[in-house]
Write a structure and sequence with these properties.
Blueprint (H helix, E strand, L loop, with lengths): L6 E4 L3 E2 L3 E9 L21 E8 L2 E7 L9 E8 L3 E9 L4 E10 L1
Parallel strand pairs: 2-8
Antiparallel strand pairs: 1-3, 3-6, 4-5, 4-7, 7-8
Length: 109
């Protein structure tokens, strides 16, 4: 299943010092809530992306805990104030402790 899961991020390549920039993320994941039943009537085990952590130059800027009510392929958008050029690192974690990472650089002028 992990081969089908792809994180996507949209980050502006450049920004001005002190600017608030919008960061958009999406990860393709089926997000089983644990409440659905299969064709035999058995509960399908819960398997969701339950965590998104984002750092900028090694400093945390977002730590989100996701719950079963979130949809498949969760999309999140947030703002970060950039003071210097650097790298945003994203880590998504699911219930099986699988992780997916992505990174993007921002050049600040």
């Amino acid at each position: 299943m992990s081969d089908d899961i792809k994180p996507r991020i949209r980050v502006p390549a450049t920004a001005k010092k002190g600017e608030l920039v919008e960061i958009k993320t999406l990860i393709t994941h089926p997000m089983e809530s644990g409440q659905r039943r299969d064709s035999e009537g058995k509960l399908v085990p819960r398997l969701i992306v339950n965590r998104l952590d984002v750092t900028y130059n090694g400093k945390p800027v977002l730590a989100a805990t996701l719950e079963p009510a979130i949809s498949a392929n969760p999309y999140m958008a947030f703002f970060v104030r950039v003071e210097e050029s650097g790298t945003l690192n994203f880590t998504w974690t699911d219930d099986n402790k699988q992780t997916w990472t992505a990174e993007a650089k921002i050049q600040v002028s």
